[in-house]
Amino acid sequence: MSHDQASYLELLARGAAVEAYDRPVLLARAGGADSETLSGLEHAKQLALRVRAELEGRRRREAELSALFETAHDLSGLRDLDAVLRAIVQRARSLLGTEVAYLSLNDPAAGDTYMRVTEGSVSARFQQLRLGMGEGLGGLVAQTARPYVTESYFDDERFQHTRTIDSGVRDEGLVAILGVPLMLGSQVIGVLFAADRRARVFEREQVALLGSFAAHAAVAIDTANLLAETRSALAELERANEIIRDHSAVIERASDVHDRLTELVLHGGGVHDVADALSEVLGGTVEFADLGSPSLTALALSGTDGHAIRHHDDWLAAVSAGGELLGALVLHGHPSLDPVDRRTLERAAMVTSLLLLARRSAGEAEQRVRGELLDDLLDAPGRDPRLLRERATRLRADLDAAHVVLAARIADHPGTRAADGADGASRATADRQRLYSAASHLAATRHGLAAARDGGTVLLLPLGPGDSAADLARHTAKHLGGTLREPVTVGASAPVEALVATPGATAGGYAEARRCVEALRLLGRSGEGAAARDLGFLGLLLADSRDIEGFVGRTIGAVTDYDERRGTDLVRTLDAYFASGMSPARTKDELHVHVNTVAQRLERVGRLLGDDWQSPARALEIQLALRLHAISGAVAR
């Protein structure tokens, strides 16, 4: 073997590109080699290329088999169907070397097909496509139950084109598409696709490989459905078995708890005495959930007509009086509760409500005192600071700590609208009284103040460590709404310091909180709680301070920071993307770059801002932040 021929072995050893195999022949020809030598070199080159092709094929088949093995391993430990389907689509995209891969599933109830998983897609319209049965390339695959490939989607007339599908494909910039069916028996349940943004020929081996991934995806879906059905059946059997096993002791426990509750009422027992007695009789743990408990929130959202309800593995019985929710008795450790035990829990809740009403009457006088102190802070800021602090101390309130002023309104009766007629006025008055009563109780438990004002209630609550004004507003809206069992809207001021030493601070905070309540109503968000900065760009208009820099940082700070660190151009890409109607194809013309570059940049933006960055609400905020960022940058220069 000559030195020139041996060079082909070196090329094979280092995995050189195909073009490198022409070099030995060219060098020999330039060196004046005879025809016999050149012929031998040409023969050696062809043999080397054949060996290289065989090695490449073996490596490709090894990678394909490895990916299929990993997919089968995922199926054996199936926990999260979405995670398995995403892994299948990602592997299909990687092995076929395509720019995009996606999987659609049929929706028998809606009679159409929808996108379930996409990988590499950057178009929001494409990711949200829903296709009618029989439409587009996927419809042809579903009809024939056979793979289908097109080198140029828009030039292919063998399937039914529709405006909706073509618009989504054009927006994504796809050209070559391969689709294979997902089969359960003889039924097509969806389609697995691989696609490129350029013309391309898919080889037979690639079609077969995508078909293998589609088979795994179908098995994953079928396995997940079977697991769900099995778990449901086992849960039903377990509950039935528990009812049969415990039924013999239920009647005796009911009699025992009746005697204990009667004795407690006669001897002036308290709420926790009722819970302790019930725990012993029912053989579980019973606790009283007050107005700040998550259990009470679940009870308020579910609604109750005096019957106990199940929440996860607990049972909840409302403690209420006159339509107002005062708390709940929560039974832990009984996921399946006998009907007789449920009735026992409900009767104990009635006894608890009587005990609470007796205790409330003693607290109403304290509520009036708290309301008078808050009225003085709002209307007479010139009062003697020493006397104000002394009055607050008796109520366990610290006026030198940071506080938030909150305005609360029942959603059906905002302060700007009067009720119609005598009945309406009476109902509105009753609602305001219920709101004030619930707010006063909350203020007492939080060492704050509350007063009825302007058709609603104003609260002054201390700001705890790690809390924000927005957190406090949301918690208060949820708490009061759960107590009254109807939506309550709460607006919060920015944190207020030195209430006594700063005349007008409380009144100013209340004015900002009222503006926030009105904004929530106009935005159709009645029943929620928020502070000015919680409302995005609208908060800039409502708040006493105009924190433009903070708004821009919260909205697109991740992108601007990335550009500064990496020297990239993501902000300009976002500007062009929105100016082009959120179309990657038109964006690349604006930026004079390849559509793949646009796709890669938008993928990076999605990872920085979150998957929902193209939703209408987020997109509007991002565009405003981009405009403010540009303006502030121009001013700075």
Write a short abstract of this structure.
The chain has 637 residues and is an alpha+beta fold. The chain has helices at residues 3-14, 23-30, 35-76, 81-96, 124-127, 136-144, 163-172, 204-266, 271-282, 294-302, 339-379, 385-394, 421-445, 469-484, 505-522, 537-542, 548-566, 570-579, 584-591, 595-609, 616-636, and strands spanning 100-107, 112-119, 130-132, 148-150, 176-184, 187-196, 285-289, 309-311, 314-321, 324-332, 403-410, 449-453, 456-462, 488-492, 529-531.
Note the main attributes of this structure.
637 residues, alpha+beta, 6-stranded antiparallel sheet, 5-stranded mixed sheet, 21 helices, 15 strands, 59% helix
Characterize the structure shown.
- With 637 residues, this protein is an alpha+beta fold.
- It is 59% helix and 15% strand.
- The protein is built from 21 helices and 15 strands.
- It has a 6-stranded antiparallel sheet, sandwiched between helices.
- α13 packs across α14.
- The radius of gyration is 35 Å and the shape is elongated.
- The N and C termini lie far apart (71 Å).
- About 1% of the residues have low confidence.
